[in-house]
Design brief:
about 220 residues; 4-stranded mixed sheet; globular; alpha+beta
């Protein structure tokens, strides 16, 4: 059974639109192109011996690619999710603000792709956060440029209907613990627990939260 989203859940709050979402949709890439681009970024970054920071991001990207490929093969949507998708009677563009080095994105964007594959009324594209920061500046999380952010856009008017991100609700306690006790609960501990949740949940909570939004638009 899909988990209900609290009425005060920030991720479904629609912002006053101050940017041209049609422009960003047209600049965005398909899921397959996204994977090809980040694979190239990983290969080029790993070979960049002059910049260790780029190399480190490239290693993250390579790890995330393996997660993406695994999720592509193993993710299965629940019947309750498919039922909501089958009831969708309007065209919706879903735009993810993402980057290849983002661990959360490697777990979330494959779920969005599965949703799009399961509904003829959903088109899905991705926009790289650092390609134009004007977009992510509209969707800051506690002042930070956390990703991924998932935008639900009316396919006819290109008006935002809702947005979600950067993580499912069950991950919130991990972030709270890290912010309150960064010395005893390190960023490595935080990242390990987050990935542990994703590996155990297998995309179910992400799919449930996203389709609960879809059911309301």
């Amino acid at each position: 059974m899909a988990k209900p989203i609290p009425k005060n859940y920030n991720s479904i709050k629609v912002m006053a639109q101050t940017i041209d979402l049609k422009y960003y949709w047209e600049q965005a890439v398909s899921y397959d192109s996204y994977k090809e681009i980040i694979e190239k970024q990983a290969q080029e970054g790993i070979n960049n011996e002059e910049d260790k920071d780029i190399q480190k991001l490239a290693e993250y990207t390579r790890l995330n690619l393996s997660r993406i490929h695994r999720n592509d093969k193993t993710l299965v949507l629940e019947e309750s999710v498919l039922s909501i998708l089958n009831k969708l009677n309007k065209k919706v563009n879903i735009l993810a603000i993402s980057e290849g080095w983002c661990g959360d994105a490697s777990q979330i964007v494959p779920v969005v792709q599965k949703l799009a594959e399961s509904s003829s009324n959903i088109d899905f594209k991705l926009f790289f956060r650092d390609a134009d920061e004007k977009l992510i500046q509209q969707y800051l999380t506690n002042g930070g440029k956390a990703i991924p952010i998932i935008l639900f856009i009316d396919a006819e008017t290109f008006e935002e209907m809702a947005h979600w991100g950067p993580r499912p609700q069950s991950c919130a306690p991990f972030l709270k613990k890290y912010k309150e006790n960064p010395e005893t609960y390190t960023h490595d501990d935080f990242a390990k627990d987050i990935q542990g949740f994703y590996n155990k949940d297998k995309g179910h909570e992400i799919a449930n939260e996203l389709t609960q939004i879809i059911s309301k638009i």
